[in-house]
Structures are given as C-alpha cells and as structure tokens.
Amino acid sequence: MFQRLREDIALILERDPAARSAWEVLTCYPGLHALMLHRRAHWFWQRGFKWLGRWISHWSRWLTGIEIHPGARIGRKVFIDHGMGIVIGEMAEIGEGCTIYQGVTLGGTSLVKGAKRHPTLGPGVIVGANASVLGGFTVGAGARIGSGAVVTKPVPAGATAVGNPARIIEAASEQAREEAAARMGFSAYGVTQGDDPVALAMRGLIDSASGHEHQIALLWSAVCKLSTQAGRPVGDCVPDDAQRDETFDAAEMNRLVK
C-alpha cells in the first residue's frame, strides 16, 4: 500500500509543476485522496461487500468532488488533476499512466444491466477538462481526448479526438510532434497542435480557391497581352466582367476559421 502511495506522489510531483513537496501532495491533492479511497472501495466491492464499497465511494465523492464507482478498474500511475466534477462509471477501465482532468465523464449510454456500458482507456490516455467519453468502447493507448470533446465511438491508439461530436485526428500526421512532446513530458489537457479537422479542411478549400483565382488572373493577363500584340482591342476578346485582378483575401479567410 505504501509503495503504491509513494508511486502516486512521485507521479504528481513529476506531472504537476504546481506541486512543491510530497507533504503538500499527500495533504492537499483531492485526486490522490480519491484514488486512495477508491482502492479501498474497490477491494470491498470485489469481495461482495457492495454496500460498503458504495458507502466509501459516496463519502469519497463528498470529500473530494470526484465520483468513482467502486466497480471501476483503475491501473497504476493514474493522475487525476484538480478533479472536481469527475464521474467514472461502474464498468469503466483506466489503463496505466492515464491523466484525467476536472469535469470529465466516463459514462454509459446503455441501460442494459450487465452490459459493458462504460469506456476503457488504454495506457497513457489523456482526457482533457470537461470531456465526455460515453459508451462501452476502447480509447487506444496514447490517445488524447481534447477539452470539451464528446466521444461516442472508439478512438485509435495515438490519435486525438476533438469537438462535439468528436472527430478523430489520426496520429500519423503528428508523429514528429509527439516524439518531441514525449521528451518534454505529456500534452496537458489533451491539447493538439494538429487543430480541428474541419478547420483544416476549410483552410485547404480557401487555399485552393485562392490558387484558382491567381491562375485565372494570369490567364486573362496573358490573353490581354496577346491581344495587344496582335493589334486587336482588348475588349474584342476579353469580356468587361472578366476578372483580371486578384481580390480573394486568403489570409483573412484563414484567420476567420482559426
């Protein structure tokens, strides 16, 4: 028990720059207290003392603001930061090294008793503040759930889920950034530099439209030049409403969709 406690304290000191000492972590971190109480509640739950497990869970919620069902399975080196408002359902499973921020819900959408209603988080998953992961699916190892995301389908290992409903950003496009992040620590709050995929698509369309306008302007310029060289009035071959200058402001449009 004490080995596990020392491990948890060392983890918090490593991941939270605000933590100044082991004593401060032990006495002032509700995430640590919630995990300590959950282990006792889970121990009773597994041995058939269901009411006692729920009673300990209830008091843990009152003391820490973190609600963890005694049936939930939580691995080693899990870090609950701040923690207020977290809800973890009965059949949730949290893998080793996960990080969970305040306001997170690991909930279910099914009312069928005995079914796998709550999600499974693989090792090293980060769930940002106020995110909701709803359903009996798996979030792959090393995945990140962005703050405020609502996830209702599986997330591949190493990918990022953002938005409501959540959209998946595959890990391949961010591999180099993740390697650098791994050397520095981890991505707090599930933040990604890859941005929302809808915004990325919009920017691609804007850049494409800007390129087309540039090409059209070049073509009309060439037509006017050839007409002048041939001694023909430009108006004979170029309509008055032809776009000869670029007016599309791609930079401004990209700024609006950031």
Secondary structure layout:
Elements: H1 2-15, H2 22-28, H3 30-46, H4 50-64, E1 67-68, E2 73-74, E3 79-80, E4 87-88, E5 93-94, E6 99-100, E7 105-107, E8 120-121, E9 126-127, E10 132-134, E11 138-139, E12 144-145, E13 150-151, E14 160-162, E15 167-169, H5 175-184, H6 197-229, H7 234-237, H8 250-256
Helix pairs in contact: 3-4
Number of separate structural domains: 2
Q: In what order do the strands lie side by side in the largest sheet?
A: 3-6-9-12-14-15
Question: Total number of helical segments?
Answer: 8
Radius of gyration: 27 Å
Specify the CATH architecture of the largest domain: 3 Solenoid
Major pleated sheet: 6 strands, mixed
CATH class descriptor of the largest domain? Mainly Beta
CATH homology group of the largest domain: Hexapeptide repeat proteins
Total beta-strand segments: 15
Low-confidence stretches: none
What is the CATH fold-level name of the largest domain? UDP N-Acetylglucosamine Acyltransferase, domain 1
Query: Helix and strand string, N-terminal first?
Result: HHHHEEEEEEEEEEEEEEEHHHH
User: In terms of quaternary structure, what is this?
Assistant: single chain
- Structural class by sheet pairing and helices: alpha/beta
Distance from N terminus to C terminus (CA atoms, Å) equals 48 Å
Helix content: 40-55%
What global shape is seen?
elongated
User: Mean pLDDT across all residues, rounded?
Assistant: 82
User: What fraction strand?
Assistant: 5-15%
